[in-house]
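Weekly structure sync - notes
Attendees: PM, LS, DV (DV joined late)
Agenda: review two folding runs queued last week.

Item 1: First target. Sequence and structure tokens pasted below for the record.
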Amino acid sequence: MKFPVLLLLLLQCNTSSAFITKLSSPTTSSALSASGGKLSVRPIGIGSAAPQTLITNSDLESVHDTTDEWIRTRTGIQSRRVLVHDGTRKVIDATAKEEDEKSGEKEVPETLRTLGIEAAQHALTMSGVDPSSIDVVICATSSPDDLFGDAPSIAHAVGCDSSKVVAFDLTAACSGFLFGIVTAGQYLNNGSKNKNALVIGADALTRWVDWDDRNSCILFGDGAGAMVLTSDGGEDAKEEDGFGILGYAMHSNGGGYDDLKCIYRGEPKKITTPGDGTIVQDGSYDLMSMNGRKVYSFATREVPAVLEEALEQAGMTVDQVDHLLLHQANIRIMEVVAERLGMPMEKVITNLYKYGNTSAASIPLALDEAVRTGRVKKGDVIACAGFGAGLSWGAAILRWG
């Protein structure tokens, strides 16, 4: 979790939640942590979007010494969606004039930003919240189209009111969406008149995948998901209905930085200055590197613990949870976490097999499908957990609707 996000949470903390921070040595189990209880926000809309290009395990067999069976049994993944160089898709332009014949529909390049826009539009439609009523937009991503952030342009594209909305990106890798909804919850609970938040999780990590490495290229896919949260309980809402985030816990530990990273690598470039000249950097990022065994060990150790911590903050037990929704990284991790919590796999929400590891998009992608198919119903309690580079990890207990 980046320091500015922690600072934002600290400044916005109020009496509705207990907020604890701990600073310690990078070698300890948790260099930075935050946890709290109920937040008076409700998740009322969910949406998602995925690239149109599909790569199956069979496709990868043609370029690598691997098989569909080998990939499925070790990861649970059968296919993944990827952004391609010349991809396009049709989107609704909320900024278009009403007299336009196709109501603002236009064909645009298929990018992470346009996926984020589409996911946000679906979430807003489900929620019934007018885009002009959104007070904050958070885009959780590690791979924005624009280095300076995609959230402001997404907010504009979906029709948010530029005179009032605050929009910014948040980087916390695969934990990003979970960190984003907690940050949004704190923002809406800071005693102001802010009522509605739009949180987007979007990543295109296939941009940084080593496609020559069969152990890593099989894992990742691209996608976007979005959630609308509101602090407006409605006229007939009971007090307990207003709590959509029942408890949460978030952690990061830079001691595991080398286990999963994507590092900037600059090439020297000489520019003309007085004297001998100045050497600056001109470059991009390396491909992702990951120590799979260490990441697996980290996830299976910390995720059950952080879920139990969030449940404790919520004053709940595992038996009161209707669904377990984990970052969609690997089916084996999900199985171990569920087993250690004493939860049957029937309660685990997953669509990993269709999309692969979509980083910050994975939780809303899976939740969107579960809500739209009727698996998740209003009032259901969902235990969510994310984990990833940083290292970062966290959990939130949500009541849907």
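Item 2: Second target, run right after the first with the same settings.
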Amino acid sequence: MTTPLKAAILRHWELDRSLFPALAEIHSLGIRGARGTVLDALLEAVATLRDFPSLYVTLVEFSILEERNADARLLWRTIERRIATDPSWMSKTESSLLAWLIAPDQAPPLDELGKELLAGPAPLRRAFLPLILQELRASGHSATSHYLVVRWLAEYPSEPDAWWSGIAHALQTHDHALLARLLTAQSLPREPETTWQWTIALQLALRAPEPHCWTIVNQVIDHVRKGGFSARELHSFLEEALSEYDVLRHPRALLISLLLSGMLGEAPNRTRELLSLSTLESPVERGLAAALAVQWLEPTELSPALIAMLEELLEGIQAGQEFARIVQKLETGVRPLTLCEYALRVGNPVLTQRALAVLVDLQPALSEFLSLASRLDIAGSTEAAIEVLRVAARQCRQRHDRVGLVRALRALVQLDPRERAALEFVVSADTRSGRFAQAIDTLLATANRAAQTGDQSLQRELLERAATVAELADDRPRLALIAELLAESDAGSVDRHLAAATALLRAGQGERARAQLWAAIRIALEQRRLDEALVAAEQLAALDPNDEAAAAQLNDLRALRRRIGEQRSVMTSSETN
């Protein structure tokens, strides 16, 4: 784990542009984590750069990174002996810093070390002074920290580490005057360069006023998107930055936590806490809460407060308001069309009307309308899908797009077979253009939807209409299919099964025709309609003279008819006598 001290050492290596190429290469290897190679390079450098003090600083830093404290102390004793014989060999800043790194109890006081770092080389100051300032505040010496921060800002105003150290001091000591001064001095907060600075940036975002806070959050988001943190580092970063905040009492902390942890592609642990949000002061916070709810909660789970926030966000998008643009920039995964789809699935009438109004303004392509309606239907929001298709049809009509209008209305009637006028328009357009197969398929799909809704009367009406078109087109395969569907829809009708058998025979489907004839015989016998049973049996036997079962059935029915005839004759004779 990278401690603040180890992070400071690596920061020093990053900043130190040594005049000696060998040492610069060692620093570069260390930053990349090639520690074994660093050790080999250090040992080689010792042989050639024995009198170079920065090499010994690097050796001590490397020992601390590797947690080889005994080696660090041994090196320090060597350095002390060299300084005793030649005080000018190593700068006072370097020696004081090494003493603090190795034996803090024997080192100069922190305030003196801070002053020496202010006067020392920039790489050492920028790497270690932020750590010294933190130590001073942690040990109760906030006044000294303030003094050093102010001096640093005054003497080296161009150093970003000074600015971020000033922000850290102001946040931790609640120095609102210093915070206001630093934020006013910058048109935008400086881009962080270290993990520690990113942590301070996020803490600043939690306290800074709008729009500064969202500018900072957006910088953090960009850093995460660029791979600035691994998943483990991001979790640790969030935990440290938000540790002092109760997310239920500080909603912005909850929103930022969900926003950033959600970028890992994992469902954040605290998504359910969105449901507890009732009032948020900022439109951006309300919009962000709605966007995060869209990302992580089911539409049926939304609280009334979140429904209101989602409606406000949609209204903001429709009106082009600044807060809506900020939300969309922060949560790029939630596009306006995605928000509309989610809102339509909630099932709230007011929210539905708002989402439809946004769709009208967005004017998506017809293909997007059709895809949206399909997804809504699959999700069980069929009524919303129907409304979307009505909007699509109106859009096509306004654009005088007849082809698109037919497509939109075709999709509409397949979801709502009660749209008679739309169905007539589509079927007429298809038949006039000679697209009989498409007209039949549309009627079949509409009939299937009617069956799914339990409206069998409408289903049969639509199937009969499809049969009429199929007859007109002499489309025997489809006519046979329609006849079968009609027989299924009216299972007690002998005539339907006989008609289906005839249509199937015309289409060359002998086996399926036999099945329909057998069904007709069974139903006719159940209904005591012997004549219809005989007609079906005769057709069945005629299909295949070698079909013994059909022949036997026909003989049985004829025998039954003879017996019934004989019985009637006897009864007639008895009545005459």
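Discussion on item 2: Residues 548-576 form the longest helix (29 residues).
Action: LS to circulate a short write-up before next sync.
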